[in-house]
User: Which sequence fits this backbone?
């Protein structure tokens, strides 16, 4: 029921602060969205204030409280650069919560969260939910270098055991977050873990390959480019296996953004 609780809200920015190199945390009041958001869901944000940008941009809901939501975002292009320049008090229009959610219902097994770059933003509400249920949770965070590292304090603050990998070795493991994941799966210390991942497409494809070799159930949050985020334009589709040699294109905005990793035809 993706649109049962979907709201389009005009709001003003309460804070919009740099938290790492090229990364910002934006906070605004969106009571209805805050009260209905589930782990993995996203918002579609119109950044028209003084920018003239017509298309909205999708961002995961990073945290919620009773009245507010935050989003953690990376400057990628024109939209996110303009967003990062908006001051406290500037208006934005926020549509959400959108999309499906991570499936953790009835699964008490340990969780491994794998976040590459700003992808870790999509795993924060999930981490809160897992920890609230007392589920052992590891957070594997990958970044290019220490200045771009995100969410370590937020995750550790709720009892997630954090492992870091940086491309240049400036902090944590020198290499990819995938190396850390392989190491943990080889050690086999966790009892039937489930993996939840978000990050660049190549990282997700690599996670999927490894976890299928180890036979570990894995859910991935896809971040395809979007137009409408309402299931209409088909700009966000992703190839899904629906049988032997059969592919169906599904919409990341409505059937996703969360998919079982084994369903995705990564080679296409
Ligand atoms: C469901 C969902 C949740 C997301 N959550 C977050 C989040 O929490 N934090 C965050 O930082 N980002 C998130 N993103 C990605 C974010 O939407 C894009 O980075 C943003 O739309 C870029 O807008 P822009 O105007 O700055 O860049 P544009 O000017 O639109 O694009 C600049 C360049 O980046 C490329 N690009 C743009 N968007 C994407 C994309 N999604 N994937 C790959 N390449 C892209 C373009 O091809 C272009 O080359 C999410 C995306 C989706 C679909
Ligand atoms: S973004 Fe338009 S159908 Fe998904």
Assistant:
């Amino acid at each position: 029921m993706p649109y049962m609780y979907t709201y389009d809200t005009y709001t003003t920015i309460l804070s919009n602060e740099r938290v790492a190199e090229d990364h910002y945390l934006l906070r605004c009041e969106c009571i209805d969205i805050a009260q209905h958001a589930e782990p993995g869901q996203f918002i579609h944000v119109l950044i028209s204030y003084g920018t003239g940008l017509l298309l909205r941009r999708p961002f995961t809901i990073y945290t919620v409280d009773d009245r507010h939501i935050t989003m953690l975002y990376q400057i990628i292009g024109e939209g996110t650069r303009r967003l990062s320049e908006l001051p406290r008090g500037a208006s934005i229009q926020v549509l959400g919560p959108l999309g499906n959610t991570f499936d953790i219902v009835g699964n008490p097994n340990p969780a491994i969260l794998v976040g590459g770059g700003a992808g870790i933003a999509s795993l924060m509400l999930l981490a809160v939910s897992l920890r609230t249920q007392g589920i052992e949770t590891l957070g594997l965070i990958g970044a290019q270098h220490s200045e771009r590292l995100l969410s370590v304090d937020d995750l550790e603050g709720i009892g997630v055991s954090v492992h870091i990998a940086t491309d240049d070795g400036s902090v944590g493991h020198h290499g990819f977050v995938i190396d850390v994941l392989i190491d943990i799966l080889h050690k086999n210390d966790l009892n039937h873990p489930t993996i939840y991942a978000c990050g660049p497409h190549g990282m997700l494809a690599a996670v999927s390959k490894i976890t299928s070799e180890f036979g570990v159930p894995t859910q991935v949050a896809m971040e395809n480019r979007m137009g409408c985020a309402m299931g209409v334009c088909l700009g966000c589709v992703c190839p899904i296996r629906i049988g032997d040699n059969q592919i169906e294109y599904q919409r990341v905005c409505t059937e996703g953004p969360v998919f079982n990793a084994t369903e995705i035809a990564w080679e296409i």
